[in-house]
Write a structure and sequence with these properties.
Length: 288
């Protein structure tokens, strides 16, 4: 989820901070277009880890469809593409975006960070809001069950059919919360990463795993032999699982990044990128 250059100034700098926020808001939106057409970020114009640069963190490795070929700087993949568009809205050319890696848990832990924003399918939760800031959501997803054709639950059509078999899920995620709510914890095996859960499925330790829907389609189509998306789990939260950027607590960039995401949504860019990179994820039945 390093030098920590983003320590918050206290009350003595309130006046300076206020003036800075006003300045940030005023320069938050650069003209959209190609990299060459993006307004260059002026050094010191935004309160970033590195002046004139926007440092974005993601996972190691980062997977399709979120990031293609583990290369976020290419702007290929849904989260990579959205991040490049957000950066451009903030006035940073693609060449001024610095990509770094972090693990999931450290990103949502309290404390200073060595990045400006972090993207790796973070769900907005009240508990996490106590430690970090979130932008407005760039995508809403559900959780899904994925397995292989040889699994005894490959043909399952109901949640009840999954409750009596071993199911794997990554710890400390919304996937775990939904799986525990829907399937119970008796047969739920918890892993430190989705990679570990996939390995458990491939070795027969579990009969299925729970991940977010786009990841389920990626695993079924590109990772697992004879992979199969069994279906979506009914989500107990209203409207699904909202994914957003994580920023350090009380970051001066939270409002500009939120406004950039909102602008991309309003102009239809988020929908276009969703269709381009996640377009195949809609056709999965909801388990009864």
């Amino acid at each position: 989820m390093t030098t920590f250059a983003r320590l918050r100034r206290a009350a003595a700098l309130t006046a300076v901070a206020t003036a800075t926020v006003v300045s940030l808001t005023a320069c938050a939106f650069a003209p959209t277009g190609s990299d060459a057409g993006a307004a260059p970020a002026s050094e010191g114009a935004l309160q970033t880890v590195t002046a004139g640069k926007l440092t974005i963190a993601t996972g190691e490795p980062a997977f399709s469809p979120w990031v293609e070929n583990d290369d976020p700087a290419s702007c290929e993949g849904f989260e990579a593409a959205v991040s490049c568009a957000v950066a451009e809205k903030l006035g940073f050319a693609t060449s001024d975006v610095v990509w770094v890696r972090s693990n999931f848990d450290s990103a949502i832990a309290p404390g200073p960070k060595d990045w400006d924003m972090n993207v790796q399918q973070f769900s907005i939760t009240d508990e996490r809001k106590e430690a970090v800031d979130f932008s407005s959501p760039y995508y809403t997803t559900t959780q899904a069950v994925v397995t292989t054709g040889a699994s005894p639950v490959a043909g399952a059509t109901s949640v009840a059919e999954l409750k009596s078999v071993p199911v794997g899920v990554m710890s400390a995620t919304t996937s775990y919360q939904v799986a525990a709510d829907q399937l119970g914890t008796t047969n739920l095996s918890v892993f430190n990463s989705n990679d570990d859960a996939v390995a458990a499925l491939q070795s027969g330790q579990v009969d299925a795993i729970v991940v977010d829907l786009p990841t389920a389609f990626y695993l079924a189509g590109a990772v697992l032999d004879d992979g199969k998306v069994v279906g979506q789990l009914p989500d107990s939260s209203a409207g699904g699982d909202e994914l957003a950027y994580v920023l350090p607590k009380d970051s001066a960039l939270t409002t500009p990044v939120t406004e950039a995401v909102d602008a991309l949504r309003a102009e239809g860019t988020l929908d276009e990128l969703q269709q381009k990179w996640l377009g195949g994820t809609a056709a999965a039945p909801v388990l009864k």
